Amino acid sequence: MHLEVLHKLPAVAWTVTRHGSCDFVNQFYVDATGLSADYCTAPLKTWRKTPSDLPPFLSVLHPDHKERVSHIFWDGVRSGGGWTFEAPFLHADGSYHWHFDRAVPVRDAQGKVLRFVGSSSDIQELRSERDSLVDRERRLLAIIDGSPNPIFLKDPDGRFLLVNREFERITGVSRDQIIGKTEDDLSKLREAGALRTNDRDVPRSGEVMLEELATTDIGPRWGAVRKFSIVDGDGRIYATAHITTDVTARKKAEEHLRLAEDQTRLILDSSLDAVITIDARDTITGWSKSAEDIFGWSCEEAVGKRIVDTIIPMQYREAHLRGCEHFLATGEGAILNRRVEIAALHRAGHEFPVELTVTAIRLESWHFTAFVRDLTDKRRVEEALREAREELTRVTRLTAMGQLSASIAHEINQPLTAVAANSDTCLYWLSTKEPDLAKARAAAQRLAKDARRASEIIARIKALMNKTPVEKAPLDIMDAIRDVMKLTQGEFRKHRITTLADLHDSVPRINGDRVQLEQVILNLVLNSIDSMMLVEDRPRTLSIRSRVLDDRMVEISFHDTGVGLDSTVVDRLFNAFFTTKHNGTGMGLAICRSIIEAHDGQISATPGAPFGAVFQFSLPTADGP
């Protein structure tokens, strides 16, 4: 807790241990009561001889109130809920002042009470006003009852709120009978239609009016009755008065309570984040221990400096000063009462990320409290998580390539075998007695073609297996699909799967990382192959289609004739660690989703019709928003 802040508070502030002994009083308390801080914070064992004994800092209570306050105090300590009471305190000048005392618990993360923090507000003036108010009300009622004219008060629904003795006399109805009722509820007043009509006119006109009433058969009535509306502080009409006196002012207790709550908030310094208090001149007035750790400035060094010269980076200083001037002029601040992430300046000169929350309170002038959380570790964790996610994506890609190892070996072996055969043929035509250059050239051309084919296969495998940084650039998604199809054609032949490709070269280019998108395509193709391996009662077919949605999105769909999807698992297919395969990891589709969403796209799966499954993803075009 920041003792410097507490000592400067213009109000009594103190803390009490969870056992009930006071361990801190601020200078305002010492000055007000004349008690020393050592006396007030004496250990529990030195003063508590009986269960009802109060701690020394409450010894200034008026003797007539100590027993009552003792019950309230110890009940609040035992329950952990704190306490609230009003009682007279002896001030250093020998006079008793009524105080409003309030304490709230400070709890740890598990909810255990660590201590109580409290404040005490001098409400002597408020009680004097309240007593004066009660006395004025008593005199007012005496005047009303002593008036020779009938006086009464009604709410907007016509219910009587107040009547005087003269009203009781002329109507023959006692106040106990009429309060809370209307004229319709009492037979003696039921025919007083003029009363009700004019009562309705008062709120509509909003003006004070005079009313002449005739004598009716319910008894003698009065004339020249003055009637007007009474409104509350918000301007709402809540009663119609008849010859009434001034409406007394509303209590100011709410304002006093609000001030006490503001003062209490200022003494709460239990946050692990940095807590910094600043005055209206941008001068640091409070600097918590966490602020020392986060920013490198000691409290002694920081207090008295301008905040703009201490922890705000150069590029934000002008905006900070403009924001302060705007708030002091208008009471409006763009960052007040909000969490914002921004760069802060360390004493060593480097910038680091923080989360900032600023609140403002007006006492004699504006004061600001800044709560600052260092986000450096959070950023490191986020970066480590990003790197781990990329590595997991690569491992998953390598796993998929492992499933293709036999097919890849076959695909590479074919052109290499052809290379060897064409090499022998070329040598043969060159080694004859009369070399046939035309046939040797043809064999050499076939050799070069097969060598390029083998090189292309190896290049595609290398691109998918390499650990390369994510790089987004405009690319032809059709080319990526065709490369994957070439890589997996051995698997299609092995499992007797027919591929139907409806791919349009006119499809716009998309902006993305080619390796990552080829990984998505490869994963979806391998899943389709797996789902069709056991199908024997129908042709095994994989249909791949492309189309453009609204000239802004490219959609690619994969429709197989495999075992299909259970509708109960569709919503979970892309969740991490969820799999429908016996030996699956549950990461393939989850990584596919993260890759597609990182490209601002969407991926989904639905049961196929009449069988199989449809996986599709959509990506924005390179020219799109």
Key phrases:
625 residues; alpha+beta; Beta-Lactamase; 5 domains; five-stranded antiparallel sheet; 18 helices; 23% strand; elongated; ATP-binding
- First and last CA, distance: 51 Å
Query: Could you give the order of strands across the largest sheet?
Result: 2-1-5-4-3
Number of helical segments? Answer: 18
Tally of structural domains: 5
What class would the helix/strand composition place it in?
alpha+beta
**Unreliable runs, pLDDT <50, ≥5 residues?**
190-194, 206-223, 244-256
Largest sheet: 5 strands, antiparallel
Question: What Rg, in angstroms, do the CA atoms define?
Answer: 43 Å
Give a brief outline of the structure.
The chain has 625 residues and is of the alpha+beta class. It contains 18 helices and 22 strands.
